[in-house]
Amino acid sequence: MRRRYTKKANWPSKNIKEQTSNESLNSQLDANIQKLKQLLDGPNDLVIREFLLNNNPTMKGSVVYMDGLIDKQLVQESILRNMKDFASNKKSYDTSKTILEVMYENFISIHSVEKGNTLEDALDGILVGKTVILIDGQTSALIINTKGGESRSIDEPTTEMVVRGPRVGFVESLGTNLALLRKSLQTSSLRFQTHQIGRRSKKSLVVAYVDGVVHPEIVKEVNRRIQSIDIDDAPESGFIEQWIEDSFLSPFPQMDNTERSDKASSELLQGKVVILLDGTPFVLIAPFTLGDFLKSPEDYNERWLIGTLLRILRYVAAFFALLLPSLYIALISLHPGLLPTDMALSIAATREEVPFPPVAEAFLMVLTMELLQEAGLRLPAPIGQTIGIVGGLVIGDAAVSAGIVSPIMVIVIGLTAISAFATPSFSLGISFRILRIAFMLAAGILGLFGIILVYIMVMIHMVNLKSFGVPYTAPFSPTMDRDWKDLILRAPMTILTRRPNFMNTKDVDSGSREKE
Amino acid sequence: MKFLYSNETISDKELKIAIPSMIIGVGVLSLPSGIASVTVGSDGWIALLIAGILQMGVIWLMAKVASSFPKQSFLSYSAKLVSKPVAVVITFTFAVYFICVTAYDIRMLGHISEQYLFKKTPVEVVMLAFLLVVVYAVSGSRVGIFRLNILFLPIILIVAIVVFLLSSKIMDVSNLRPAFQTDIKGHMHGLYTSALSYIGISIILFYTSFVENPKNIPKVSIIGVTVPVVLYIVVYLNCILVFGQVGTSNMLFPTVDLAKRVDLPGGMLERIEALFFTVWTMGVFTTAMMVFDVAILALQSIFKKIKKIHIILFLSPLVYFIGTIPKNTTQIIQFGNYIATSMYIYGYLIAIVLFIIAKVRKGKSNGKKAI
Amino acid sequence: MEKRLFNFIGCLLIIFLLSGCWDIVNIEDRGLIIGMAIDFAEGQEAAENHLTVTTQFAVPPGLGNPAQSGGGGNPYMNLSASGNSIDLITQKIANQTNKIPFFEHLKVIAISEEVASTPGLMADVLDIFIRNRDTDRGIDVIISKDKAKDILEIEPENEKLPTLYLFELLEKNLKETNKLKNTKLGDIHDYLLTKRSFVLTELASKEKLLEETDGAIYGSVSEKVIGKLELNEMFGLNLVTEEDARGPIEVEIEGGITTFSIREAKSIVNVQAKNQENPKINVQIKLEGELQETFGGLVLNDIESNLKLEKKVAAKTEEIVEKTIKKAQQEFEADIFGFLDELNKSDYKTWKKMKDDWEKGEKYFVNSEITVNVIAEVRAHGVIDKSNKK
């Protein structure tokens, strides 16, 4: 996988739209319009508004934009109306300037205006919601940023609820997201680097980082990998993640995604890089290590003691989510001697009627649970709850009464499911689900010994795994005991005055206790 | 600004942890019994301590030799000291020993798991599964191996401490008496037995070429040896306190039996020996992994043209085959003793010889050129 | 890249398809053996076979299942078979049941007095339990007065499984009164290795109820059970050997019986063997406790009456302990107190000279002079001075 990057480090940007092929604009307005229509196949959402300049019938101009992608009010108030003024205006202008420059200086009251010289510029502009002004006899066009159209208002993200914390989540618009990030991180050293992604559908992608905090190598590496992306379209940041992650064979996520602007900004200050893609509220955070995945932004919003307890609880939950069913299999099938006699007797009594061995029983229940989870996810919220009740209560109870599974198995599976949901990161939760199956299989073959072998294998995999050059197991190993203050424990805020050591940040201190 | 993580160097801390991870393995499971059978009362700790101090001395010698040739492989610096052909032979012999130790570790693990975990599962399957995991580990990066040690060693030590604390309920302090009654012969015998459980410290000769800070190696390796010395003494005394000297000396694996006598508080689990042994697998794993890796390293330095993965693929069946040679408990123990003793003598001899030659050379060159 | 992925998946598939599940025996398919009894074979079987072993299997459904109402049936199942070695017999028993015998939950082994009184046999029958990895060193070993099998058939009122009843009886209930000896398999292993005499609890049953209990002395010289201790003597033994002996001591004072209960007891044994012919053994016992009950007119509100009670308790305890010692020393010539161990720990060189002639040969133990000192302290007398006016 690593080889891929070295090969494609400087991937030549292929000319995708062969038809336009950097054709420069014609001086004939009609020819340009014709060409644009032809390229887009004359869709009916393409608006071409023609006007005359200085009431001169030989001087024609056109305003071209896509209906629905633009901010209608803005176009009407700031372009079309001004154009009308311009057309009826009889004043004379500085003749040394071209007519476009005159327009730009006197009539366009929009902040972001560019000049485009090729048809492709114009076309790309139109497709992302810009308005293009073409004038007869000019070989360049004004491309005015009038992006708009329908968008969602800023809401609390539904995937990452917190009890305490800002109720702000990213939305689908990149501009808004950048603004949100700027708002929550008001520093001049916040940097945005923009890339264009996609062969056919060009999307903007922004790499955000805090200059002076992040290690430059990480930014370089992220940019390098992003440049290697070559896909038709990136509808979601997940595409980006899968394209640039270190190992696609790994069950572990090597980047985190979040909808919360406060989480993104706090990670930026920890020396991480945030990747924002236009069109999705989910931004990527890299590099991300195992320890980071078990942190939740809320840990810091509560007092340290609560934060610490929640962290420990989360580690216990991770342990349960991974190992509980496999331990059940191992204890029941292979090592009943480990159970206290009373418990062994009562388990044996409950299992007497169960026709399946624990391995089959456990797989059956895990499968049921996964189905319930998947079914509940795809349904509207009110029905989703019904599924929960039908699945959890009715099936569970009926399965026990029918003697298909033992009640203890139901407890184990229930506990596992709850623990899996207590993991803050959804993507880590999924990898736990995969590994859980591996552990169960191993337990079914070799019992506790199988479990430990799989555990060792997972560990071997993890120590060899990196996320953008940062070892996945840092700071457990390589050991950076200074970072342990904010790992399983969450030390009081006044002690957490340093940025993570394992991120190798340029600026080490994030605060100081000595300040008066 | 240099990025912190590189793939081919080892920090002091990683070396410090690698040494105990290397030493602690299957040996400690049967060690208390071997010591208790030749000493009286609780006197075995003396032999353990002296053996530990001796180890420190030897590892210091080795580290001294190795650290005076920073960033050089064992083959290249021993070639400088004792001509190339001799160095190749020495390196190759080391590789053979390390392969045997790997095989012994894997066999012993299979054997003990047959005793305490399984009844019908063939020992070959257990060994194969374990060997495959070891192979997976050594085919990864070398730094990964050291990082694994860091992840596993604390767990092993914590488990040992937990067993110690849990067994305090069933300890009988009077078992410590009589004290200081063992005769010299018993002590010598105990010394020998305990020394055998320190095999593998010769890895220091090979790993120094990866160490960032070669100057610190002697200090760091002595600190590293301290951990198993303390652990051995604690485990030994723990067995004596619970079973008494006579009881301990009559068990094959008293450390595992110790866990068998322990119940978790609150009666959650009884007889945690299966659990204990399972966790201890990690300790055996780190040993086997490192010994195997050093064997590969040694062979790699001789056969420079062969790829690492090919060496691994060639060695794995060999290790497996050697591991299956001993037929029963007695033979396994004999096999272990034989390897340990001969490797011991060999490793020490080489260390001392190299050290003396290095000293003499240094004396000759008389500071003209620091080696 | 794809090739690697396929190789990986292929390897995984092979591993799963080729693997077996050798050791999987589900908990409900195992016959959990919780108790065993060892007797001599009887009747026509006796001709060919030597021993009869009875194993008690727990039958979990019989224990009742909270999820399913009822359950019913016998909570346990006793199966017997005869043979010449324990292992062979358990194989025979395995043939009688549909479950696979599972020994890891074995709690109690009962040996009939008859078997235990045959020289060397007790050590032999216990060998398999000490050697086997399934069995635990914490198993309780008891002697049964009559047939050991009957012990496994008692029907206690509050417990469904006789073995668990016995186990808990030994572990908990009688720790309060300290008249039973809770001898574990691991201890016996040590005793057999050091050739030391010891005491086991002996139980008898009658009509499915436990009837009487006392102690059986295992003599290391004759390698068999050689005699009995009464409950009171067991108490005396425990005062010397156990770390935290508890229990009541009855004394007669002020014309009535007063009970003193031990809260804490400590015994220090001191063996002086400068003179080999006549070793001096001193047992010092320190008791702390409180007044539990009084029938006479004893009022503990001054120092004097306190002292008086303490003296009485001390004298009574001395009497109990001395009686036990005398019985062991003179009647059975067995050092059940572990005085030799004490000598080993305090004076290794002398021990080495004397160990082989302690109980046999020169019989140093029999010739030793044993003194007992008891110091008793009354710490409290309840929450009242007296309960009625006399």
Automatic annotation (TrEMBL), chain A:
<dbReference type="GO" id="GO:0009847">
    <property type="term" value="P:spore germination"/>
</dbReference>
<dbReference type="Pfam" id="PF03323">
    <property type="entry name" value="GerA"/>
</dbReference>
<keyword id="KW-1133">Transmembrane helix</keyword>
<dbReference type="GO" id="GO:0005886">
    <property type="term" value="C:plasma membrane"/>
</dbReference>
<dbReference type="InterPro" id="IPR004995">
    <property type="entry name" value="Spore_Ger"/>
</dbReference>
<keyword id="KW-0472">Membrane</keyword>
<feature type="transmembrane region" description="Helical">
    <location>
        <begin position="393"/>
        <end position="422"/>
    </location>
</feature>
<protein>
    <submittedName>
        <fullName>Spore germination protein</fullName>
    </submittedName>
</protein>
<feature type="transmembrane region" description="Helical">
    <location>
        <begin position="434"/>
        <end position="458"/>
    </location>
</feature>
<feature type="transmembrane region" description="Helical">
    <location>
        <begin position="312"/>
        <end position="334"/>
    </location>
</feature>
<dbReference type="InterPro" id="IPR050768">
    <property type="entry name" value="UPF0353/GerABKA_families"/>
</dbReference>
<keyword id="KW-0812">Transmembrane</keyword>
<comment type="similarity">
    <text>Belongs to the GerABKA family.</text>
</comment>
From TrEMBL, chain B:
<feature type="transmembrane region" description="Helical">
    <location>
        <begin position="116"/>
        <end position="138"/>
    </location>
</feature>
<dbReference type="GO" id="GO:0016020">
    <property type="term" value="C:membrane"/>
</dbReference>
<protein>
    <submittedName>
        <fullName>Spore germination protein</fullName>
    </submittedName>
</protein>
<dbReference type="InterPro" id="IPR004761">
    <property type="entry name" value="Spore_GerAB"/>
</dbReference>
<dbReference type="GO" id="GO:0009847">
    <property type="term" value="P:spore germination"/>
</dbReference>
<feature type="transmembrane region" description="Helical">
    <location>
        <begin position="21"/>
        <end position="39"/>
    </location>
</feature>
<feature type="transmembrane region" description="Helical">
    <location>
        <begin position="222"/>
        <end position="244"/>
    </location>
</feature>
<keyword id="KW-0472">Membrane</keyword>
<feature type="transmembrane region" description="Helical">
    <location>
        <begin position="150"/>
        <end position="171"/>
    </location>
</feature>
<keyword id="KW-0309">Germination</keyword>
<comment type="similarity">
    <text>Belongs to the amino acid-polyamine-organocation (APC) superfamily. Spore germination protein (SGP) (TC 2.A.3.9) family.</text>
</comment>
<feature type="transmembrane region" description="Helical">
    <location>
        <begin position="309"/>
        <end position="326"/>
    </location>
</feature>
<keyword id="KW-0813">Transport</keyword>
<feature type="transmembrane region" description="Helical">
    <location>
        <begin position="45"/>
        <end position="65"/>
    </location>
</feature>
<feature type="transmembrane region" description="Helical">
    <location>
        <begin position="274"/>
        <end position="297"/>
    </location>
</feature>
From TrEMBL, chain C:
<dbReference type="Pfam" id="PF05504">
    <property type="entry name" value="Spore_GerAC"/>
</dbReference>
<dbReference type="GO" id="GO:0009847">
    <property type="term" value="P:spore germination"/>
</dbReference>
<dbReference type="Pfam" id="PF25198">
    <property type="entry name" value="Spore_GerAC_N"/>
</dbReference>
<keyword id="KW-0732">Signal</keyword>
<feature type="domain" description="Spore germination protein N-terminal">
    <location>
        <begin position="23"/>
        <end position="202"/>
    </location>
</feature>
<feature type="domain" description="Spore germination GerAC-like C-terminal">
    <location>
        <begin position="223"/>
        <end position="382"/>
    </location>
</feature>
<dbReference type="InterPro" id="IPR008844">
    <property type="entry name" value="Spore_GerAC-like"/>
</dbReference>
<keyword id="KW-0472">Membrane</keyword>
<protein>
    <submittedName>
        <fullName>Spore germination protein</fullName>
    </submittedName>
</protein>
<keyword id="KW-0309">Germination</keyword>
<comment type="similarity">
    <text>Belongs to the GerABKC lipoprotein family.</text>
</comment>
<dbReference type="GO" id="GO:0016020">
    <property type="term" value="C:membrane"/>
</dbReference>
<keyword id="KW-0449">Lipoprotein</keyword>
<keyword id="KW-0564">Palmitate</keyword>
<dbReference type="InterPro" id="IPR057336">
    <property type="entry name" value="GerAC_N"/>
</dbReference>
